[in-house]
Amino acid sequence: MPPQSEAVQNPPQEAQSKTLKRVVVSSFLGNFIEWFDYASYSYFATVIALVFMPGDNPTVALLETFAVFALSFLMRPIGAVFWGNMGDKKGRKWALTASILLMSGATFLIGCLPTYAMVGLLAPVLLLLLRMVQSFSASGEYAGAATFLAEYAPANKRGLYCSVVPASTATGLLCGSMFATVMYAVCGHDSAFVTDWGWRIPFLLAGPLGLVTHYMREHLSDSPVYAKMQSDLENKKGPAVKAPFRTLMKKYPRVLIISFGACMLNAVGFYAVLTYLPNYLIDTVQYDSAKASMITTICLVVYIAFIFFSGHISDKFGRKKMLITACVGFVVLTIPAFYLLSSKDFMVILLVELAMCFLLTINDGTLSSYLTETFPTDVRYSGFALSFNMANALFGGSASFISIALIEATGNAIAPAWYMVGISAVALVAMILSHEHSGKDLSEI
């Protein structure tokens, strides 16, 4: 009898394990595509400025390029409301399978765009429109993937599994950085190949990768937690939520505001540390571009390992403690770090960026699991998507633009550091006011 009983139980466990692996892989790929695109846009920003923007002033063209990047983020809250509503009403699977096609399709088309020399002002207009479509669809990707993973993962390992999502973003940035580094090293920064076709390659890759991810998601079932909620609704054990966004705004405004505050540091920190600093070193510090790219690549490799470590530690010590630690760290260390970056010493810059990466991973590796544990199942996708994307729309996409503008306006190379300190202080207040739900069954939140 025991062997027969074990034989009966093992197949479901094996099937559950295989399903969880497929959820992990599909969640990883979806975010990888999104952030590989963002990395490519950032690391090829000077080339994109040359290809798409009018005028002969490189600084103005670069500002315009980052302005397109920032403006596209205005679609984030709109996309968050749409995908959050659909994810809570029609299921996590439906939202994720639809969003990946739209996101990867828009990214692919960016790689096909005509240049300013070909069509004039239509070129930057088309670039902005496609970035807005990409941003609209991507607003459901991070929140949906994290929610999907959290609702599949064991409660005592939720932090570790959810850290796959930020790890995939860092991997996308790493591959974008390595791609740009190799291309610049082989072809030269201003070569005809780079300006004509080289910058297009990473955007074109989104097409096939998006189709693979869509196929994987089509063959998954919705999460057990969401399926349980639907079953309870069918059995009249709970009220049906017909308008998740309205319910979120009416019943959970305080939780939403606190979550938004917690996301602010992640939004600014992620873009400032991982995408703006390479440009800061090259344009402001006048540091060698090849060495700056090498430092970024090294930091991203270490960052991915730190992410999983932070997710695992958050399962042991709780999300709130981790997020407060990150806030305090940025308040205390950001300004000294920026002063040290001006040393132009390779090892000093590397150690400073590694320290900032470590602080950021304490936040980044914990935030996705924290947000999934903050909202109940019927509005979890909406709450996560709105708080995360509002913070990114207002503070994330504009981080590079604001940093450059602050330096231009004040003449002070340390101005971006003060901006980050202010954001970190606001996030610290939000985290002090938050509640701890680590390890709880998501159906009970």
TrEMBL record:
<dbReference type="GO" id="GO:0015293">
    <property type="term" value="F:symporter activity"/>
</dbReference>
<dbReference type="GO" id="GO:0005886">
    <property type="term" value="C:plasma membrane"/>
</dbReference>
<keyword id="KW-1133">Transmembrane helix</keyword>
<keyword id="KW-0813">Transport</keyword>
<keyword id="KW-0769">Symport</keyword>
<dbReference type="InterPro" id="IPR036259">
    <property type="entry name" value="MFS_trans_sf"/>
</dbReference>
<keyword id="KW-1003">Cell membrane</keyword>
<dbReference type="InterPro" id="IPR020846">
    <property type="entry name" value="MFS_dom"/>
</dbReference>
<feature type="transmembrane region" description="Helical">
    <location>
        <begin position="289"/>
        <end position="310"/>
    </location>
</feature>
<feature type="transmembrane region" description="Helical">
    <location>
        <begin position="413"/>
        <end position="433"/>
    </location>
</feature>
<dbReference type="InterPro" id="IPR011701">
    <property type="entry name" value="MFS"/>
</dbReference>
<keyword id="KW-0812">Transmembrane</keyword>
<dbReference type="Pfam" id="PF07690">
    <property type="entry name" value="MFS_1"/>
</dbReference>
<comment type="similarity">
    <text>Belongs to the major facilitator superfamily. Metabolite:H+ Symporter (MHS) family (TC 2.A.1.6) family.</text>
</comment>
<feature type="domain" description="Major facilitator superfamily (MFS) profile">
    <location>
        <begin position="23"/>
        <end position="439"/>
    </location>
</feature>
<protein>
    <recommendedName>
        <fullName>Putative proline/betaine transporter</fullName>
    </recommendedName>
</protein>
<feature type="transmembrane region" description="Helical">
    <location>
        <begin position="96"/>
        <end position="129"/>
    </location>
</feature>
<comment type="function">
    <text>May be a proton symporter involved in the uptake of osmolytes such as proline and glycine betaine.</text>
</comment>
<feature type="transmembrane region" description="Helical">
    <location>
        <begin position="255"/>
        <end position="277"/>
    </location>
</feature>
<feature type="transmembrane region" description="Helical">
    <location>
        <begin position="384"/>
        <end position="407"/>
    </location>
</feature>
<feature type="transmembrane region" description="Helical">
    <location>
        <begin position="160"/>
        <end position="185"/>
    </location>
</feature>
<dbReference type="InterPro" id="IPR051084">
    <property type="entry name" value="H+-coupled_symporters"/>
</dbReference>
<feature type="transmembrane region" description="Helical">
    <location>
        <begin position="322"/>
        <end position="340"/>
    </location>
</feature>
<feature type="transmembrane region" description="Helical">
    <location>
        <begin position="35"/>
        <end position="53"/>
    </location>
</feature>
<feature type="transmembrane region" description="Helical">
    <location>
        <begin position="60"/>
        <end position="84"/>
    </location>
</feature>
<keyword id="KW-0472">Membrane</keyword>
